[in-house]
Amino acid sequence: MRKEQSTNSINEKFLFGVCELNSAVNIISGRWKSQIVYSISEGNNRFNLLKKELPNISDQVLGRQLKELETHGILIRQNIPDTVPAGIMYVLTQKGIDLVPVLKDLCEWGKRYEGKEIKLPESNL
Hints:
Shape: globular
Number of strands: 2
CATH topology of the largest domain: Arc Repressor Mutant, subunit A
Structural class: mainly alpha
Oligomer: single chain
Number of domains: 2
CATH class of the largest domain: Mainly Alpha
Domain HTH hxlR-type: 19-118
Strand content: 5-15%
Helix content: 55-70%
Strand order of the largest sheet: 1-2
Radius of gyration: 18 Å
Low-confidence stretches: none
CATH superfamily of the largest domain: Winged helix-like DNA-binding domain superfamily/Winged helix DNA-binding domain
Mean pLDDT: 88
Keywords: DNA-binding, Transcription, Transcription regulation
CATH architecture of the largest domain: Orthogonal Bundle
Largest sheet: 2 strands, antiparallel
Protein name: HTH hxlR-type domain-containing protein
């Protein structure tokens, strides 16, 4: 946990207040979060299904990323009735459902500019 008066905490509060984009990027930042959200949207809604879809993620990291997405209201955990042992599935909230097309657009943007050098217009200075 970060100290309230630390420089990092103060800077984070400032950036989140300046533009909501900073807050949005903070929510989806992390190596696996966007792929987890996309995988759940495609029906991979149980821990083992996500592990199969994302074989390089460790159980600990997957659990932590799922918990963070739940904390931010992107998904919820639901018990699967009549399963022994008790099963859990992950369901996107409306906030998470609304995020999926944004992630797809970012993916397309990334494909378009991946590895390409961006040439800036020449300055008149």
